[in-house]
Design a protein that fits this description.
By secondary structure, the chain is α/β, with parallel strands linked by helices. The chain has a single domain, classed as 3-Layer(aba) Sandwich (Rossmann fold). It contains ten helices and seven strands. The longest helix has 28 residues. It starts with a helix and ends in an 8-residue tail after the last strand.
């Protein structure tokens, strides 16, 4: 930090006094978001499915249960999403920021002619059906809460993908689910703007996470992926978490229904 920044105190991306729920928060982008939201002053609940060790460690790293609560919750159905919101509100009493980050990406290529019903249903269940439940319960909770001093009730950020905008061959299930999140963002942003609820979307491309680790470890696949990203490299979880945090702060108060591309320019050339 420069001497001028020290003198001026920098620019605060503060969420002091707010409560955030981050889905899929034990690893990758979700864990990076949990850390940033805690650093911003928010109390944070986050979900995990099976990574109990990582979830417990992150909870302790972020101040223990008074400020950070790990919640084990499968996310496959609308009821699962509603149950998670209820658990987060039970933990911290309110909900100001909902970050829908969880999702699955079957790593094997599945041509549409041989994609199984089971794969289609699981991908859509996790990536879309549970999101419906989260949104239904999360919006209802925000609507019950009084307006903040700035006239807002809450912020919602959905994490989509470049695949949701341009498709992805052999991964029709994933692309369809992520494209649906973009449509939900646009529809809900107009539906809820007058009620003080902002809805936006962040669209990453390839990011170094557990979900992409095996593919990125393949030299041939990694080289091919790098060739499709104008910046010439894969992103980091922190580089996605930062824009998510920004969209939940007052600095994004005039941003509504936006698809925020954070993918090194990949969406432009795919």
């Amino acid at each position: 930090m420069s001497s001028e920044e020290k003198q001026n105190g920098g620019v605060a991306l503060s969420l002091h006094g707010k409560v955030a729920l981050v889905t899929g928060g034990s690893r990758g982008i979700g864990a990076a978001a949990v850390r940033l939201f805690r650093q911003s002053g928010a109390r944070v609940a986050f979900s995990y499915r099976a990574a109990s060790t990582q979830a417990g460690s992150l909870q302790q790293e972020c101040g223990g249960t008074e400020g950070c609560r790990a919640i084990q919750q499968d996310l496959l159905t609308p009821a699962d999403g509603e149950a998670l919101v209820a658990s987060a509100v039970a933990a911290f009493g309110r909900l100001d920021c909902l970050v829908i980050n969880h999702g699955i990406w079957p790593p094997h290529d599945a041509p549409i002619g041989s994609m199984t019903d089971a794969q289609w249903r699981e991908t859509l269940g996790v990536n879309l059906d549970s999101v419906f439940g989260l949104l239904r319960a999360g919006v209802a909770q925000m609507q019950r809460q009084p307006l903040h001093a700035d006239g807002t009730r809450g912020k919602i950020v959905l994490v989509s993908s470049t695949a949701g905008q341009r498709g992805e061959a052999f991964h029709t299930d994933y692309a369809a689910s992520k494209g649906a999140l973009i449509s939900m963002t646009k529809g809900l942003s107009t539906e809820l703007a007058g009620q003080g609820i902002a809805v936006n979307c962040v669209a990453p491309g390839w990011v170094h996470t557990d979900m992409s680790a095996d593919t990125l470890a393949d030299p041939v696949a990694s080289k091919k992926i790098g060739s499709t990203i104008p910046l010439g490299r894969v992103g980091t979880p922190d580089e996605i978490a930062g824009p998510i945090l920004f969209l939940c702060t007052p600095w994004a108060g005039f941003v509504q229904g936006e698809v925020f591309n954070v993918n090194g320019g990949a969406v432009l050339v795919g």
